[in-house]
Amino acid sequence: MLDFLKAIMKNRTLLMSLTKNDLKQKYQGNFLGVAWALIQPTATIIIFWFVFQVGFKSKPVDDFPFILWLVAGMFPWFYFAEGLSNGTNSIIANSFLVKKVVFRVSLLPIVSLLSALGIHIFFIFFMFAMFMYYGYMPEIYWLQLVYYVFALSIFLLGLSWITSSVVVFFKDMGQLVAIIIQFGFWLTPIFWNIKIIPEKYHWLMELNPIVYIIEGYRNSMIYHKWFWEDIGMTMYFWLVTIIIFIIGGLTFKKLRPHFADVL
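Structure (tokenized):
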């Protein structure tokens, strides 16, 4: 772990350069360029708002405007979906670094995460602006989002090490990840309230670590609740995250020597 942190500091300039290139390559040739990274999620939010707020006349959730309650759950999900999808393809997309350059390949998923994180930070400030537009002024609880962004990033890095190393040998992993993201969106309480499920079944939903992040964003922005107030969920999330992080690191280390041959 110490060697890994040292490698991040040593290669920080290269990591930032690769992150910029990653963003440019995704939208290269498009007239609006990187702006599409912001337009697509925004369009999704507008569509959901129109369907549920205008079409189905969704009522405020816990006396909070539905659109604010929705974005507090959608924005962290966008980061998770984008980070996992990009992280899964990070090795294949940068195969030239694996085959020809002396480079710590385990840092490549970080490039994809930084790319997704930059967009996510924009949407966090966009969310702040939306709340203030509706008359909700900044609260100290909003600062807690730094913790949840960090927690989700560590979780994503562990997952990305697993998926990015396996996809080199098992190309179907990319399709499986896409399916998991799609199903996960509807099974995670993002645009529906977990309270509609009988309380005795809440523990089943909370087995999904992303529920901790989604609820954490809403606790920070809406319910004004600190993460340590739900110590059980916090301990569970970090236990799962640490296990995935260790498995991801070991999997990557085991498969890394064979990347160049397969690619």
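DSSP finds 13 helices and no strands in the chain. The CA atoms of residues 196 and 202 lie 10 Å apart.
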